[in-house]
From TrEMBL:
SUPFAM superfamilies: Terpenoid synthases (SSF48576). GO terms for molecular function: transferase activity, transferring alkyl or aryl (other than methyl) groups. This is Phytoene desaturase. Pfam families: SQS_PSY. InterPro entries: Isoprenoid_synthase_dom_sf, Squ/phyt_synthse.
């Protein structure tokens, strides 16, 4: 019979710190949002590697929450239209603060900030996004110029956010980055225009 030699037990793995646990829960929350709100996009995102997939889910979750303020759950809850823009303003401010501090009491915003800080983007992409969300509240018809501005903020910058997530840990040359960014913007714009056509056909 083999006897176990006396010795120290293997050290138990260290418990996650408060922030590590909060980060994990926040990102799990973002993952739930994409799975519950977009079956097709959620399934497609599962084809990505785990790290990239989580970043894409974090971006999607914030975009979804903003969209629900403008054209979804807020109206269903009976929020006064005059107050909807204030809610959107508050979400934008919370997002900007979280990107600077690395923390938010809003789990979805916190998850988004993790991605923004790791992928290296900030208000230069989120500000146009929120500006386009406000256009949904204020403008019923577009001029060619306002339409271009709207598509950039509502779709092209989201493509740029996702591109930054894809490029985390990958070195690129300046010409490569310019080419990638142009492709990301065009793809985002194409998806948005398809959505417009689908809405018109409904």
């Amino acid at each position: 019979m083999t006897r176990r030699l006396p010795g120290r037990r293997p050290a138990a793995p260290e418990a996650p710190t408060g922030l590590e646990k909060y980060d994990r829960v926040a990102q799990e929350t973002a993952s739930v949002v994409i799975r519950r709100y977009s079956t097709s996009f959620g399934l497609a995102s599962r084809l990505l590697g785990a790290d990239v997939r989580q970043h894409i889910e974090n971006v999607y979750a914030l975009v979804r929450v903003a969209d629900e303020i403008v054209d979804g759950a807020a109206a269903g809850a009976g929020v006064d239209p005059a107050h909807v823009e204030a809610l959107l303003d508050a979400l934008e401010q919370e997002t900007e603060d979280a990107m600077l501090r690395g923390y938010s009491t809003n789990l979805v915003v916190h998850a988004f900030a993790i991605t923004a800080r790791r992928a290296g983007f900030g208000a230069e992409l989120t500000a146009p996004f929120f500006a386009s969300m406000r256009m949904d509240l204020r403008r019923m018809e577009h001029t060619p110029a306002s339409f271009t501005e709207y598509v950039y903020g509502s779709a092209e910058v989201v493509g740029l956010m996702c591109l930054r997530a894809f490029l985390v840990g990958h070195a690129t040359t300046c010409p490569e980055r310019i080419r990638f960014e142009e492709g990301a913007k065009r793809l985002g714009a194409a998806f948005q225009k398809v959505n417009f056509l689908r809405d018109l056909a409904a």
